[in-house]
Amino acid sequence: MARSEGDGMGAGDDEARERLKEIEETLDVLRGEIGPPTDDPKDYGDAAAEMLAREEQGALIESLEREQAQLRRQLGLD
């Protein structure tokens, strides 16, 4: 069965484009927050907390990058 313009596909693309825009904005913020590790002296607790935060942020970035790639493929942007 052929798809017509009135079958809602445009709305799905609009939603995908909006989500892609949100992801790109979030990635910009997250990447800006990471920054390079500092050489400032820290106690073990602070160092562990910073390392955990970096790992969690890195995992979030990877997840968003996968979703971004999927949406770009879906929209034919890659």
Mind explaining what this structure looks like?
Helix content is 73%, strand content 0%. The chain has 78 residues and is mainly α. Helix 1 packs antiparallel against helix 2. It starts with 8 loop residues before the first helix and ends with a helix.
Overall shape = rod-shaped
**Structural category:** mainly alpha
Distance between the terminal alpha carbons, to the nearest Å? Answer: 27 Å
Roughly how much helix do the residues carry, as a percent range? over 70%
For the secondary structure, the number of strands is: 0
Portion of residues in beta strands equals under 5%
Oligomer: single chain
Helix tally equals 2
Q: Average pLDDT, to the nearest integer? A: 85
**Helix and strand string, N-terminal first?**
HH
Biggest pleated sheet: none
Instruction: Work out the radius of gyration.
Output: 19 Å
List segments where confidence is low: pLDDT < 50 over at least 5 consecutive residues. 1-8
Summarize the structure.
The protein is mainly alpha-helical. 73% of the residues lie in helices and 0% in strands.
Which labels suit this protein?
single chain; 78 residues; mainly alpha; 2 helices; 0% strand
Give the SSE layout:
Elements: H1 9-34, H2 44-74
Helix pairs in contact: 1-2
